[in-house]
């Protein structure tokens, strides 16, 4: 139980949030802001509690001027079942929030008007977070689904590209129906910048995935996934085929013959430890 109380130390409130709060007080929208960010906070705490349960490394629980995010220091090597639960823990909080709203209204702690506002905000935040756009929960679910069927790097890049396409569609809807809503424009800008940064850093993200897989604590992988490769392939190109929740054996061929086999650990050892970054598979394989 103590480890969950330690999450309080991870909470980070962006300085601009206090500016938004002051503006809300001056304009008479404080209770609306309190409702909105109270729901956002409980949503992010759902993610954080689930991540803490599975002993994931939580960096910060950030409250931003237009939302929140639970940042974890994990790079694609935890079990996908755990990640699915952590992702869904946020949206599931909205069911508990709805029950809480009903209880507060039943005991006349909040007015019927405020109850309606809370229900609207609760549904709005839930539906928004389920949009298939990274880094929203819906976008993370799309990436997780792709990762269950494709190599990690392919799934990562395809999820970012699909997120950008869907974001363009959302942008068009905002232009048609709410062109002067400043808060929506801020959210759009935040999502565009986030996607651009994700794409720009996709090589760095992939290298973290490999480094953690090589040097980090290994999970017990029961699924063995062979990779067929040519002896002329560079080591890095073979690692691009690595998938989550799998351990790989690389079958190295040359022409119509099998030159030999490599365990993924041997491949990563040659690349990262021995610094053979420009080596080809035929140079490190043990010939059968």
TrEMBL record:
GO terms for molecular function: metal ion binding; metallopeptidase activity. The chain crosses the membrane at residues 12-31, 84-108, 114-134, 155-176, 182-199. The keyword Transmembrane applies. Coiled coil: none annotated. It is a multi-pass membrane protein. GO terms for cellular component: membrane. Its main location: membrane. The lineage of its organism: Bacteria, Bacillati, Bacillota, Bacilli, Bacillales. Belongs to the peptidase M50B family. It comes from the Bacteria. It is found in: Membrane. The gene is spoIVFB. Residues 33-107, 114-164 form the Peptidase M50 domain. It is an enzyme of class 3 (hydrolase). Its EC number is 3.4.24.-. Keywords: Hydrolase, Membrane, Metal-binding, Metalloprotease, Protease, Transmembrane, Transmembrane helix, Zinc. Its cofactor is Zn(2+). This is Peptidase M50. Pfam families: Peptidase_M50. The keyword Iron does not apply. One of its GO terms (biological process) is proteolysis.
């Amino acid at each position: 139980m103590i480890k969950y109380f330690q999450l309080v130390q991870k909470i980070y409130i962006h300085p601009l949030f206090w500016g938004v709060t002051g503006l809300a007080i001056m304009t008479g929208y404080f209770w609306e802001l309190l409702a909105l960010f109270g729901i956002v906070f409980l949503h992010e705490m759902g993610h954080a509690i689930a991540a803490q349960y599975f002993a994931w490394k939580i960096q910060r629980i950030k409250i931003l001027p237009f939302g929140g995010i639970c940042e974890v220091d994990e790079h694609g090597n935890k079990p996908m079942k755990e990640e699915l639960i952590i992702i869904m823990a946020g949206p599931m909080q909205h069911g508990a929030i709805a029950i809480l709203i009903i209880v507060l209204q039943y005991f006349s702690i909040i007015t019927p008007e405020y109850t309606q506002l809370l229900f609207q905000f609760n549904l709005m935040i839930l539906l928004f977070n389920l949009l298939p756009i990274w880094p929203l929960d819906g976008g993370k679910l799309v990436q997780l689904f792709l990762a269950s069927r494709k190599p990690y790097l392919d799934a990562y890049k395809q999820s970012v590209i699909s997120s950008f396409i869907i974001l363009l569609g959302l942008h068009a809807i905002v232009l048609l129906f709410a062109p002067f809503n400043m808060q929506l424009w801020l959210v759009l800008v935040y999502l565009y910048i986030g996607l651009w940064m994700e794409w720009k850093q996709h090589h760095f993200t992939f290298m973290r995935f490999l480094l953690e897989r090589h040097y980090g604590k290994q999970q017990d992988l029961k699924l063995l996934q062979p990779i067929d490769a040519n002896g002329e392939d560079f080591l890095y190109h073979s690692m691009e085929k690595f998938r989550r929740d799998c351990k790989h054996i690389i079958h190295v061929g040359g022409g119509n013959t099998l030159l030999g086999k490599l365990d993924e650990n041997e491949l990563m050892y040659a690349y990262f430890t021995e610094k053979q970054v420009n080596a080809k598979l035929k140079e490190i394989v043990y010939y059968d």
